Amino acid sequence: MQAIVETLFDAVYLITVITLGIRMIRGSGNSRQFRLFGWMAVVLGAGDSFHLIPRALALCTTGLENYTVALGLGKWITSVTMTVFYVLLYYVWRQRYKVSGQSGLTAAVYVLAGVRIALCMMPQNQWLSADAPLSWGIWRNIPFALLGLVVIVLFYRSTKEHGDSAFRWMWLTIVLSFGFYIPVVLWADAVPLVGMLMIPKTCAYVWTVLIGYFAMKKEC
After folding, report:
1. Are 9 and 1 in contact (CB under 8 A)?
2. Residue 150 and residue 143: Cα distance in Å, rounded?
3. What are the angstrom distances between the C-alpha of 2 and each of 24, 60, 185?
4. Cβ atoms of 140 and 78 closer than 8 Å
5. Residues 6+ apart with CB under 8 A from 166
6. pLDDT tens, 42-53?
7. Over 80: is that where the pLDDT of 19 sits?
8. Calpha distance 149→83 (Å, rounded)
9. Cα separation, 85 vs 178, whole angstroms
10. Which of 178, 205, 196 is nearest to 48 (CA)?
11. What would the pLDDT profile of 87-120 be if each residue is shown by its tens digit?
12. DSSP letter, residue 66
């Protein structure tokens, strides 16, 4: 039952975000913010597919334990693409609110993203092992969480200042995604049921993409 439900859920998720992303890229016209948002959605879906597709195959065939390398490689790729996702979201913020300058803020975003990706590349992560260390899972997610926090604060402040009703919940979708993701990082190995939090976390990302898509339909 888990295999069927989870596979269907993941298939709907991947098809939805990638399709919406492509539609945004094609329908954005001269709007750079929505073109960026479209690429952001495609990066999200394409990156997650490297983990979710092997997981679906594992669940529907011989089990997760026989797909350790494929699942680990998928998590590795997803960790990098999710970082790119937030960098693109930062640029969506700059485009939407016509932000210029602030080179220090941009540098901070790139430093956090760079540190996150560098930590993901360290062999100590043991991505392809069944016993990947929890400590490195925590270390590589510290700059990722800080990057997310920066984007949360930026959208929260800007939507309030500009009275931007279309993006007013963008900050909340990111808060929810991290709120559901962090317990998985910390406790999923010890308490597998905690892994179920990835479902509402995924729904939060779909909400993020839908905010951009509906805003484009209204504004373009």
Report:
1. no
2. 10
3. 33, 9, 21
4. no
5. 211, 214, 215, 218, 219
6. 999 999 999 999
7. yes
8. 13
9. 14
10. 205
11. 999 999 999 999 999 999 999 999 999 999 999 9
12. G
With a pLDDT cut of 90, the percent of the chain lying above it is: 87
**Average pLDDT of 130-154?**
95
Enumerate residues 6+ apart whose C-beta is below 8 A from 53. 14, 74
**End-to-end CA gap in the chain:** 43
Residues across the chain: 220
Q: List the structure tokens of 2.
A: 């888990």
DSSP code of 98?
A: T
User: From CA 83, how far away is CA 114, in angstroms rounded?
Assistant: 9
Cα–Cα distance between 137 and 151 in angstroms, integer?
21
pLDDT band at 3, cuts 50/70/90? Answer: confident
Q: What is the pLDDT of residues 33-82, one digit of tens each?
A: 999 999 999 999 999 999 999 999 998 888 888 899 999 999 999 999 99
Residue 46 token pair: 């394409």
Res 84 pLDDT > 80: yes
Residue 194 CA to residue 173 CA, distance in Å, equals 20
Per the structure block, which two tokens stand in for 119? 């930590």
- In the block, which residue shows the tokens 């979708």? 173
Mapped onto helix, strand or coil, the DSSP state of residue 127 is coil
CB atoms within 10 A of CB 38: 25
| Nearest-angstrom CA–CA distance, 39 and 42 | 5
Q: How far apart are CA 76 and CA 59, in angstroms?
A: 19
- Which DSSP helix (H) or strand (E) runs through 31? none
* For residue 2, pLDDT beyond 80: no
